[in-house]
Write a structure and sequence with these properties.
Blueprint: E1 9-14, E2 21-26, H1 31-49, E3 55-58, H2 66-75, E4 78-81, H3 91-110
Parallel strand pairs: 3-4
Antiparallel strand pairs: 1-2
């Protein structure tokens, strides 16, 4: 379902230490769109916390690319990815996806429709 602002996808980032969640809306499910969003987030997160991101854990999706490997190497991040077709290995974020989608469905279902004139 497309959002009002034209976004079709979401990208969730969870801090394993604090369990803090960030959700970003993406227009396209492309590695360029997702990687640029991740790069902006990483810069802000490190600036705000004063800490260095050590490990970035991703699934075997669009973010797994040469551009992602190059960026992680240049910034000193260790890149880890899940085994293909095993979303259970990334259980925390999969649970978050389910929670967010259920909340979205509930909000969509409770939105009153305006009858046409």
């Amino acid at each position: 379902m497309k959002s009002v602002s034209g976004n079709l996808y979401i990208m969730n980032i969870v801090d394993d230490y604090s369990s803090h969640l960030w959700t970003f809306c993406l227009k396209l499910k492309s590695d360029e769109d997702a990687l640029s969003t991740l790069q902006i987030w990483a810069c802000r997160a490190e600036a705000e916390s004063g800490e260095h991101i050590g490990i970035i854990h991703i699934d075997n999706g669009k973010l797994k690319s040469d551009a992602m490997n190059t960026w992680c190497d240049a910034n000193g991040y260790t890149l880890q990815s899940t085994v293909p077709y095993t979303s259970a290995h990334n259980g925390c974020i999969e649970h978050m996806h389910l929670t967010i989608m259920n909340r979205m469905r509930a909000m969509h279902a409770s939105t009153p429709t305006v009858p046409p004139n």
